[in-house]
Amino acid sequence: MNNKEIKTAIKKIRKHIKENDYPTISPCIKRNDPMLRCNYNCYGYVFGLTGEQYQDINQQGVWNLGFTDQTFGFVERFGNPNVVRYLLKNDFKKLKLKLYESNENEKLNQGEIKFALYSCEQDFHFVRQDADGTWSHKMGWNCVEEKFETENGKLKKYFPRGDKNYELMGIYKSRLKPKTKVKEPKKSEQKFDIRVKRPALEIGK
Question: Which residues are CB-contacts of 69 (< 8 A; sequence separation ≥ 6)?
């Protein structure tokens, strides 16, 4: 991607984020959208956009981890945990989204997303927490969305898949939508004197 394409992708991503509600509800449970089976990977799945929204952003392979900084090689990009963390933070910074370290017990509030980052020598993987508290993920570009298998409701330290064994590197949280502010009624500027005054009495009456 060149700088122009990156700026266009960032603009479209932010546009579609504004259109959606967060936290998300796993599409594999709540709706049957065949377009959700393609167009994006586990990283795109974190943001909870629809297949149509991803198609509008870019074609396959464009929006991936580190799309805002492509100065690293393939092995460095996906096989080095420190580089993976840097690319994640840099993407969120360029998207003007704050990224916080979190944990499994921290409440997922309205307007937020929370996800876990796994990494191995050759790859990375993201698992998203949905609005109902469950965890779900998407294993690749043409894979379906599915619930993530946990141990007694807790994320696994290691996540084996095929010949790879992913290790949990951290849990992160970000606010994608601003908090809803409740407008308080304006206080009247009129001031009242609540002191009781004894009326003056005229002499002789």
Answer: 87, 90, 91
- The count of domains in the chain is 1
Check: CB of residue 91 under 8 Å from CB of residue 47.
no
Residue 139: inside a domain: yes
Give domain status of residue 131, yes or no. yes
pTM of the model: 0.80
pLDDT tens for 92-109 read 999 999 999 999 999 999
**Would you list the DSSP string of 53-97?**
HHHHH--TTTS-TTTT---S-HHHHHH-HHHHHHHHHHHHHHTT-
Residues in the chain: 205
What amino acid is encoded at 96 in this protein?
K
**What's phi and psi for 92, nearest 5 deg?**
-65, -35
10 Å CB burial of residue 13 (0-12, 13-18, 19+) is buried
3-state helix/strand/coil string of 113-131: EEEEEEECCCCEEEEEECC
Average pLDDT over residues 30-45: 68
**Integer Cα distance of 98 and 129 in angstroms:** 18
